């Protein structure tokens, strides 16, 4: 078996990255492809609570909360969650009821703390949005990634995946290169692909190959 190239980035490294402000992936807004899916293509993810793992500064959490969803943003970095909370308050206003629909969780996606378990919905999430989260994980963690989503998303709920990168971008990942076939291998045991856009809208400065897909929990 060939050796897997790339770094298995530890939680403390992500924390250090956020403390130093070294976040070149931070695009400052939700991906145009996500907005296209929800607003132009009118895909309905349902009305229940949503989860955004690896949410960083929380743009997607804010986006869905403003559309009425009870949202949970999760990141292993405490600094990221502090910045997300502060950014959300500036964006929607400190007295806005939208703030009450946002919950910031500094925790591991793979094993929730007791504190997190007490906060998240007991019957699971209606949907989750995976945006450049899988590509940050070492390949040895991919099967656990799929299994955890299958546990967190309720039956007939949805997993929205922003598939990136689909072409090699670095000799020292992350981000690790992904493929549509890989997503099928990981998710087909638990989910059914119900929608895919292989040419979603992109920011002019980020004209790279991406797909955005929606998977329904079996």
UniProtKB/TrEMBL annotation:
Transferase among keywords: yes
Region of interest (Disordered), residue spans: 1-25
Entry keywords, A to Z: Methyltransferase, Phosphoprotein, S-adenosyl-L-methionine, Transferase
One BP term from GO: methylation
Coiled coil: none
Skewed-composition ranges (Basic and acidic residues): 1-10
GO MF annotation list: S-adenosylmethionine-dependent methyltransferase activity
SUPFAM superfamilies membership: S-adenosyl-L-methionine-dependent methyltransferases
Highest taxon of source: Eukaryota
One Pfam entry name: TPMT
InterPro entries: SAM-dependent_MTases_sf (IPR029063), TPMT (IPR008854)
Signal sequence range: none
PANTHER family hit by this protein: CYSTEINE SULFINATE DESULFINASE_CYSTEINE DESULFURASE AND RELATED ENZYMES, PTHR32183
Protein known as: Thiopurine S-methyltransferase
Organism the protein comes from: Smittium megazygosporum
